[in-house]
């Protein structure tokens, strides 16, 4: 069984960290086939479209996609790509690693973000110049689906579940989110806590060790997972998976990082860990574990890219990971 992986580096450091991950995949010699796809700012300059149809087809017809980042065109690229894989859940683990300076070394969190609704459903309007609106969508179906996924994930890790919300203000929409999740919890006899997302932002900084899986509406998941990146040593470390019923897309949480793009110093960790998540998703559990172990050893012993306080290049760090595989 040889799976086809769509590989879309995109813009900025995506073009540095995705090839690093592909080097590692090549080394593993799993017989995967890689098909390169184009998307992002440069693709728009070249073709007039940030996300050409053929890239969408490629993603739809692949077994999984590895994506880097898109710059200014991010919303035009990543939101349709997440939709192309039918992704309803965005998994964002944020944990601290020995060897990397972290504000809170006890942090070991996984954000499970609802990926189809909330304010990201994209229903925005300009009523007239100076007056704009945004419509949120929250449905019972999507909220139950993310709840089932989140409770399963937490059960596997033996983690507590915290549901982030702001139902005291957004009574209808976040109220629905809570009600649906409560329905699923009741069916399964699962335990969980709820937390107002503003208070949770503070608690996550003060006592991240108290939390495990954090189940979030779309925008809250985006913001709280970046906050958690700050706890563990930066965006260069955080992987993510966009999971659909039959397809999935894996990408670092960070963006195109134009401030360091082209210098060859981007930290490959986030993308390599996203690749480990992809391998596990495809059923290569042992290989995923091996990749993770090689990354962890490299984080502990170096070499480190500048964001981690070192002076290694992307290539140096990638070679070190490969040597430890
Ligand atoms: P975008 O609009 O594409 O999201 P951005 O300017 O928001 O771009 P991010 O990629 O989100 O940039 O990164 C935010 C900060 O974190 C930048 O200073 C960037 O250099 C740093 N950063 C992000 N990813 C990495 C990485 N892999 N290695 C090193 N530094 C990184
Ligand atoms: Mg950004």
Automatic annotation (TrEMBL):
**From the Swiss-Prot or TrEMBL record, what is one GO molecular function term?**
isocitrate dehydrogenase (NAD+) activity
Keyword line: Oxidoreductase
Bilayer-crossing residues are none
What InterPro entries does the database record attribute to this sequence?
Answer: IsoPropMal-DH-like_dom (IPR024084)
- GO biological process annotation, one example: isocitrate metabolic process
Q: Which Pfam families match?
A: Iso_dh (PF00180)
The record places domain Isopropylmalate dehydrogenase-like at 4-321
SMART domains, per the entry: Iso_dh (SM01329)
PANTHER family in the record: DECARBOXYLATING DEHYDROGENASES-ISOCITRATE, ISOPROPYLMALATE, TARTRATE, ISOCITRATE DEHYDROGENASE [NAD] SUBUNIT ALPHA, MITOCHONDRIAL
Family note: Belongs to the isocitrate and isopropylmalate dehydrogenases family.
Name of the protein in question: NAD-dependent isocitrate dehydrogenase
Q: Which organism is it from?
A: Halocatena pleomorpha
């Amino acid at each position: 069984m040889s799976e086809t992986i769509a590989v879309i580096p995109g813009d900025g450091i995506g073009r540095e960290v995705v090839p690093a991950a592909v080097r590692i995949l090549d080394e593993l010699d799993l017989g995967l086939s890689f098909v390169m796809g184009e998307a992002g700012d440069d693709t728009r300059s070249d073709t007039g479209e940030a996300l050409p149809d053929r890239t969408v087809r490629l993603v739809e017809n692949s077994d999984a996609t590895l994506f880097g980042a898109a710059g200014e065109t991010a919303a035009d690229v990543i939101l349709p790509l997440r939709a192309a894989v039918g992704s309803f859940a965005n998994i964002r683990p944020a944990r601290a690693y020995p060897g990397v300076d972290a504000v809170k070394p006890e942090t070991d969190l996984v954000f499970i973000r609802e990926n189809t609704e909330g304010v990201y459903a994209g229903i925005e309007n300009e009523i007239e110049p100076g007056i704009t609106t945004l419509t949120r969508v929250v449905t019972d179906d999507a909220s139950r689906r993310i709840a089932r996924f989140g409770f399963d994930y937490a059960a596997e890790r033996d983690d507590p579940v915290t549901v982030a919300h702001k139902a005291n203000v957004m009574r209808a929409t976040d109220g629905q989110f809570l009600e649906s999740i409560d329905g699923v919890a009741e069916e399964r006899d699962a335990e969980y806590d709820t937390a107002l997302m503003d208070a949770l932002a503070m608690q996550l900084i003060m006592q991240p060790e108290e939390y495990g899986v954090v189940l979030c509406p779309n925008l809250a998941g985006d913001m709280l997972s970046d906050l958690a990146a700050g706890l563990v040593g930066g965006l260069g470390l955080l992987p993510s998976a966009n999971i659909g019923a039959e397809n999935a897309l894996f990408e670092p949480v960070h963006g195109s990082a134009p401030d360091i793009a082209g210098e060859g110093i981007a930290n490959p960790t986030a993308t390599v860990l996203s690749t480990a998540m992809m391998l596990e998703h495809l059923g290569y559990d042992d290989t995923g574990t091996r990749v993770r172990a090689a990354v962890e050893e490299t984080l502990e012993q170096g070499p480190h890219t500048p964001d981690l306080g070192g002076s290694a290049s992307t290539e140096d760090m990638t070679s070190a990971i490969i040597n430890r595989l």
